[in-house]
Amino acid sequence: AAMSFTGRMFYTGYMIRKKQKQPSASARAVGLSALLVLLGSLCSLAAQDYIPEYRPGSEPMLLTGLWHRYAGYIDETAAQSGLPSDRAMVPLRESIFATPTAPVAPSSYRYMLRISGPPGPHSYTLCVPDLRDYRTVSVNGTTLYDSSSDAPGSPMLYFNSSSDLLSIIIHCAPGAPSPATPGALVSVPYFGEAAAVDSSKSLLTGWVFVLVTFFALGGLFMLVLFTFWRKNWEFLGFSFFLLASALFYIFKYAALFQSIPWFLGLQRTQEIYVASMSLLLCGLSAFVYTMFRAELPRLPMRILVFLPFLIAPAVFLLPSGFLVVYRLATAYSGLLAVGMLALVGVELVRGNPRARWLGPAALPWAASIVCSAVLRDSFTSAFFFEPIGQVLFAFVAWLMLVKKVGDTFESVETLSDYVASVSTTVRKFIPQEFLESLDKSDVTDLRLGDHVRKQMTIFFSDIRAFTELSEKLTVEENFAFINSYLSRVVPIVKGNGGFIDKYIGDAIMALFPGPNGPDEAIRSAIAMQGKIVEYNGHRAKMGYRPISMGVGIHSGDLMLGVVGVHDRMENTVISDAVNLASRLQAISKSFNISMVISEQAFKELEDPGLYKYRFIGKVRVKGKAAPVSVFEIYDGIAPDLFERKMKANMFFEQGMLSYYQKDFAGAMYYFKRVLDIIPEDGAAGFYLDTCMNKAAL
Q1: How far apart are CA 362 and CA 434, in angstroms?
Q2: Quick one: pLDDT at residue 1?
Q3: How many CA atoms within 13 Å lie on the side-chain side of 318?
Q4: Which of 101, 152, 281, 497 could form a disulfide with 132 if both were Cys (CB 3.0 to 4.6 A apart)?
């Protein structure tokens, strides 16, 4: 069968090369998969009769070598010499690849194992799945389990030995499963040092949980996707395949759970496992059919898809149902593998894009099967390699289907782009948040005079010395600079819950609705200052001078609405609070500081202690009868300046306290100390000049 399958694959490769000058990568993957399957088959046929070796300290090994079966029971004393009690008995050698059968007469099975490594006693563990089905288990004549005295429980048998050759003997009652051919389940006895077995079993239990969870969640996800998009039957087929895989691996590794009470109550685990194998084959058939249903004849493919549905109940209904169904399922799985890979090869020739996905995906699956066949004694190979190959196959198939979803949505979006282009362009000039504030769903709903009164935080920012900077640039360079600057800072405003009301040259006016507006505005300003520091590093590499910005923040009531005339309207904000925020930004420029906020905004902060700030006095603002208390927040500025401000903050606070106590001489001392640390501090310089003038009077 392997040679026939390989011949088919080479013929497919020949056809691909005939149509193309060079075979595609997917064609090479299919051909390599065929060679790997053939190699695995040859390796399994090359199993030789030898005494395997185990080195203490290595991973546990599966006892998959050749067992010797004897009719009747081996005498325990004779067992120590490795000979049966009756020399006329001829050993019947069986391998794990034989068809699972149960002897009709009492039998004994012997497995020889050589121990290589440092001499001395070692603690070993022999795990015998289905232990409750056997009569006795002994090692070198020492009985580890006796069904007449021991209650069935954990299959883990612990013993100590210093011998370099172990003779493991299992006595089977009539009808008990053979340890040499234990059946379809992965229930082969395995052996190793006690610590290594315990560690490996814990790792394997976690692996089974991850494996089952991956397939189960993936299947449920694809099932949900199908419920919302029922025209795509491949989602349903793939969901069926994944869910059946989860069930399949639960029972494939059933030997792991034999110490769990509820699992011990399952009397027909072999039959349940074979039924789950049939469902897995049905799921794989359904997936292949739904993927290529347009290219395949319907009636034959439907028969192949639903045939496992008929096989599964037979395991419980037919006499000797387990043996019949196991052979049917094994034959069907080989037929399905050959058919699926042949189909992928044909579709590769036709240029089917889905085959380009599934072709390379078959490579790791085939490689894992080969590794499992070559490394038959390896605990890791037996329990990890083949599932990993199937996981990779399922993952690639999942990516293919997700890409289909993305491509479909992309097509729909492309068709609707022209319809939405005009509306999208208009929305770029009018913020969505502005529409929401006026309770409008679209710009077409706006009317002249629409307005609403709201409590918001107003944010003004401006680039320092922009006029001087712009005079040295061309018109094109000016626009490029402004757009480069805005592209860095505007997303920060939007990311913190605000929206841009308007651009005034290089200045930005933003609004932050809601009770957390002051905090959101301050976080935006801090992030913008950090972005300016980063931007200046980029400008320095290009040979440009650094820039700086100032921010003014205030909270208050405002009127937000539409002004203008019928043929030329504009969204705007009208309020005294807007004027005050603009004046605070001007104060930041005068004092050469980065951020100024009003007392009103400061009081509305959730926790002012989260920020580094200082009170910079009460200033008179045009249009206000009473002076306004203002604060500087200096988070986000350049690290060197931040450290100097933290160092000088105590002197500045003492200077402000002396100033308002009219101790101008003391205030002058403290402000001079501040200027010694921060010569460019405009606030300290302003108050020093004021104190000097007042002291002179």
Answers
A1: 54
A2: 43
A3: 16
A4: 152
